[in-house]
Amino acid sequence: MRSGERSPLILTVLEGIPLIRPGDDLAEILLQALEESQINLRDGDILVITQKIVSKAEGRLVDLQTVSPSKQALDLADKTGKDPREVELILEESTEVLRSRLGLIIVEHRRGFVCANAGIDHSNLDPGEDNNQDLVLLLPENPDQSAEELRRKIETKKYVRIGVVIIDSHGRAWRVGTVGISIGLSGLPGVVDLRGEPDLFDYRLRVTQIGAVDELAAAASLLMGQADEGYPAVHVRGFPYHLRDGSFEELKRDKSRDMFR
Amino acid sequence: MRSGERSPLILTVLEGIPLIRPGDDLAEILLQALEESQINLRDGDILVITQKIVSKAEGRLVDLQTVSPSKQALDLADKTGKDPREVELILEESTEVLRSRLGLIIVEHRRGFVCANAGIDHSNLDPGEDNNQDLVLLLPENPDQSAEELRRKIETKKYVRIGVVIIDSHGRAWRVGTVGISIGLSGLPGVVDLRGEPDLFDYRLRVTQIGAVDELAAAASLLMGQADEGYPAVHVRGFPYHLRDGSFEELKRDKSRDMFR
Question: What is the pTM of this model?
Answer without folding.
Answer: 0.93
